[in-house]
Every structure is written in C-alpha cells, then in structure tokens.
Design a protein that fits this description.
The protein is of the alpha+beta class. It contains 2 helices and 9 strands. A hairpin with a 7-residue loop joins strand 6 and strand 7. Pfam families: Olfactory_mark.
Amino acid sequence: MAAEAGVLELPFTCDEQLTRRMRLRFQSLQQKNARPQDGERLLHPNEHIYRVDFIQQHKLRFLRWDVQLDRPGKVTVTGTSQHWTPDLTHLMNRQLLEPVGIFWKKLGAKEVECNEVDAQEFGERIAELAQIRKVMYFLLTFTGGLEPAQLKGSIVFKA
C-alpha cells in the first residue's frame, strides 16, 4: 500500500491457478481435436491472468499506473468484464474491455512508457467497475521477451 494519506495502491497479482485452468482448457480442446466455442478467447503461452483485489470499492478516483519492467519489452493489460468462478474458465472475446493499457520499456531506457490517454481512460473505467466488484481480472500479454517475473505493477487511486 502507498504511504501517502488518502492514497490506495492495489497490486496486480498473478492468478496462477486460473491461468493454469485456462491453459488446461486449451490443451483439452487440442487433445479432443475440438474447436472452441464461437467467440471463445483461448489463452496463448505469452498471456497470463492477473487480478486486483479491491480492499475499498467506493469513492476511488484513479490517479496513476505504477508499472515497472525489469527489462525491455511490452505488456498489454486488458480488463475483463467476466465474473469468474472456480469452475468457469471460458473467456469470451466480448468480455474483453477497451481501451487497454499498453506499457513498454525501450532498450537503454530507465522509465516505462505508455499511451497516456488510453491508460487514463482505462484507469478511470477500473475505478467505476470497483464500485460493483471486490475483484477484477485482467489478461496480461507479454511480448518482446518480457515475462511475468519481470513485471511489478499496481493501480494507484485517491481514496
């Protein structure tokens, strides 16, 4: 949590169990030589499911993203409208929210960059969704050789 008064920093947490379950869905379809449902979004090897747990849901105002990358590469953060339960792992394309947050670090750069307009709009939308959710799930796509262990990220709100 952030040390500043009235500031709430909520970290992205990799949901290993849900990611694994969604990968099993993909493997199951391959083994059965079956096709996914119409509109179903299968998890690619460079994609992982993360979650943000809202310890406070109301009166949140988005302040900023705090994304740190240990090496050059890009991570795309896509919010979902899905309310997952342990036995439901089907992610449909229509459940993916826009805009997405795209964060990247160039070779030799110290700071992580992003498309600030989309990141701001995305953060504001998350603050709105927090009013009706205790948990929100995100699909993170890693490219450019970046891996989950090289990411530290959170969303910072004024509480």
